[in-house]
Amino acid sequence: MGNQEPGPQANRTLSEQDHFEVHDLAPEVFYEQVHSFEFWFQAVQGYLSGKVYGVDPNLSAPSLPDLDRDRLITVLCNYCVGETAALEGASGLIAIAPNRHTKIFLSTQVVDEGRHLEVFLHRLRLLDVADPEGEVERRASRSLLLFKRRLLELVNGKDWEAAIFAQNVILESLEFTVFQSHAREADPVTRDLLLGIVKDERRHIGFGENELGRRLQLAPHIRARLGQVKRELDHLVLDTLEETLLELGADPVEREKLGRAYLEAAARLGLET
Amino acid sequence: MADFLTAYSIQNWLESCPQGYLMGTVYGHRPEDEEPAPLLENEVLREEAIRTTVQLVVGERCALAASSGLINAAPDEASKRFLATQTLDEARHVEIFTQRLLDLGVPKKDLESTIQHFANPNLVKFAEVLLEKVDKKDFVAGVVGQNIVLEGMAFSVFEMLHAVSEPTNPKFARMLSGTIADERRHVGFGENRIGSLIKQYPERKADVEKLQKEMSYWMLATFADAFRNNPARAEFKRIEGELSRAGVHAEWQGVDLLTKDPEEMEQILADTVLKEFKTRLSRIGIEYQTPDRP
Amino acid sequence: MTDPLQQESTTAKDLELESRPRQRFELEDTGFDEVPPRFRKFYRRWRGPGDQLAPNEVICPVCKVVIRSTRELRPGDRVYCMPCMSRLIVVRGEDGRLEARVAY
C-alpha cells in the first residue's frame, strides 16, 4: 500500500515538509501550477530521463513473425495519423486559447504530440519500414482521416469548445484507452514507449475534461452543440477503435469494454449517447 | 533535407534542453537567485526593468503564436515536429519573462494592464506584420519572419542584455543565457529549412524580401524608442558611471557597453542585427533589403 | 454555500465519523513518476482489482490514478489529481465506499 498506519512514530513532531498537503492548495494556485511549463518540465523529467525515442535503451526490439509485424505496422501507422491530428489540432488551438495559462499548457501538449509522432515513426523504422511516412499514408484508416479533417475544421473555425472537445476529450480518450490496452499485450519496446505516452495523455484528457466542465457549468447551452459534435464524431471514433482492436487481436468482450471506457468521459460531462 | 532535420528532433531537444542546460533551473534561473536589491529599491530602474521585460513578453507571445500557427502550414512531418519544440520553447520564454514581471513587483492582477501600458506600439506592429503571414498559412514567409527576422533580432537583443546583466544581475543573465541557447536552434532551423524551400520556390523571393524590409523598419523604430527616447537615460548614465568607476565592464561586440551613450548602443545593436540579417539571408539566397530609418 | 456533491453524500456513517478525529498518514514515495518530485508521494498507481484503497486514498475517475492524502479522507473533502489536473470532491458512493467526483 505504501502507507504507514499511524503508529508510535505518528505522534512525533512533524516537520514543515511533512505538513505539506497538496490538497490544501487554493484552486487557482493548483491550476496555475499544473498548467505551467515548470510543472510539465519536472513531470516529464521523471519518466523520460534516460529514454531514447521513448524507450529504455537496454531493451531490444524482438523479431516478430511476419503477420504480427504487419499488423503492428498497420496499428503504428494509424497511431501516427492520430498523433499528427493531435499535433496540428493542439498547435492550432493555441491561437484561440482564452488566456496565457491555457496557451502555455497547450504548448506543452504540442511538444508531447510531436514526441509521440516521432517515437512511433522511429518504432516503424525499427520494424524495417524504409519509408514510414509513405507507409502511414498507405495504411491510414479512412475513419481516422475523416476524424482528423473534421477536427481541423473545428480548430480552423475557431470554435474553442467544440475543438477542445474533439481533441482533448474524444481523440485523447480514444488514444488513452487504446494505448493502455495495447501496452498490456505488446512487445517490450512497444510497451515501454506506449506507457510513456499514456503518462502524457493523462494531462491532456484531464485538461480537456476540466476546461469543458467549467465552461459547461457557466454556459449550459453549449452542451447541445457539443452533443451534436459528439454524435457526428462517435461513429468515426468507434469505427477506428474497432479496426485497431481487431488488428491487435482483442476479443469482443475486451472491445466492448474499451468502447465503454471511451464513452465514460463524455458521460461525465453530461453528454450521453 | 531529412538528414539535417534529424538534428532538430524532439529526442535531441529533450536531451539538450530539459535534460541539459535547463536541468535544475526554476523559471530559467538557479532557484537561489533573486533580482538584485539595488534594482528593486530604485524606482526608476525597476520601472525600466519592467518596461524592458514587457517588450520581451510581447516578442515571445508573438513568437508563440507564430511557431504554433506554422505547424499546420509546414509541408513535412519533421518540420512540424521541430516547430512543436519551438512552440514549447516560446511558451517557456513567455512564462519566465512573465514571472520576472511578478518578481519585479508587478501585482498579479495588474499583469495584463502593465503589459498593455508598456508594450511598444512599434513592436506590436512588427508582430502584426508577421502574424498576418502566419494566419494566411504562408510557411516560407512565416519562417523567414519568425525564425530569421524575429529570432535574429531576439538573439542579438538577448546577447546585449546578457552582457549588461552578467556583472549586475546573475538571475536575469541566467534566464537570458537559456533563452539564447533556445534561439540558436530556432535560427538554425530557419536558415536550413528555408534555404531548401527558396531553391524550390524561387518565385517567393520578392515577397519575402518585402516582408524583411517591413519588419526591419518596425524593429528599428522599437530600438529608437528603447534607447533614444528612454525616460530613464539620466539615471542609467549615473549608474553606468558608478559601475565603470568600480571597474565593472559589459563587453559586447568589442565595446564596453557601460561607457556608451544610448544612441551609440542603439547604433551598435541595430548594426549587429542588420548585419546578421544580411549574412543569413544571403546564405539562403535572399537579397537583403535596407529598411527605412525611423 | 454547501457543495451539492457533499450534501448528497452525507450519511449516518459520515455523521458518526465526523465526531472522531481524523487519522494521519505518513506518505512515502511509491515510485509514481508523473508529477514533479515534491508531489509524487500524493499519488500512486492503481494495481487492478486486487488492490485496496486505504482510508486516505481515492481513485481519480478521469485518469484512474490513486490520489493520497496525509489525512483520512471524508465526504466533502477536496482533493486534486495532479497527473490529469483535475479538482475533485470526495463523496460516499452507492456501495458505501469513498469515491471522487470531478468538480469543474
Describe the structure.
The complex is a heterotrimer of chains A (273), B (294) and C (104). With 273 residues, chain A is mostly helical. Chain A is built from eleven helices and one strand; from the N terminus they run E-H-H-H-H-H-H-H-H-H-H-H. Chain A has helices spanning 16-19, 27-34, 37-48, 66-96, 100-126, 132-139, 142-156, 160-185, 188-218, 222-248, 252-268, and one strand spanning 3-4. The longest helix of chain A has 31 residues, at 66-96. Chain B is mostly helical. Chain B is globular, with a radius of gyration of 19 Å. Chain B starts with a helix and ends in an 11-residue tail after the last helix. Chain C has 104 residues and is of the alpha+beta class. Chain C has one domain (4-102). A three-stranded antiparallel beta sheet of chain C has the order 2-4-3, with no helix packed on it. Chain C has a three-stranded antiparallel beta sheet with strand order 5-6-7. In chain C, strand 6 and strand 7 (98-102) form a beta hairpin. The radius of gyration of chain C is 14 Å and the shape is globular. Chain C starts with a helix and ends with a strand. Residues 1-7 of chain C have low confidence and may be disordered. Chains A and C meet through strand 1, helix 2, helix 3, helix 9 and helix 11 of A and strand 1 and strand 5 of C. Strand 1 of chain A pairs antiparallel with strand 1 of chain C.
Question: Which descriptors would you attach to this protein?
Answer:
heterotrimer, A: 273 residues, mainly alpha, Ferritin, 75% helix, B: 294 residues, Ribonucleotide Reductase, subunit A, two-stranded antiparallel sheet, 12 helices, 2 strands
Question: SSE layout and pairings?
Answer:
The complex is a heterotrimer of chains A (273), B (294) and C (104).
Chain A: E1 3-4, H1 16-19, H2 27-34, H3 37-48, H4 66-96, H5 100-126, H6 132-139, H7 142-156, H8 160-185, H9 188-218, H10 222-248, H11 252-268
Chain B: H1 2-6, H2 10-21, H3 37-41, H4 43-71, H5 77-103, H6 111-118, H7 121-135, H8 139-165, H9 170-200, H10 205-227, H11 233-245, E1 251-252, E2 255-256, H12 262-283
Chain C: H1 4-9, H2 12-18, E1 26-27, E2 43-44, E3 57-59, E4 66-68, E5 78-81, E6 86-92, E7 98-102
Antiparallel strand pairs in C: 2-4, 3-4, 5-6, 6-7
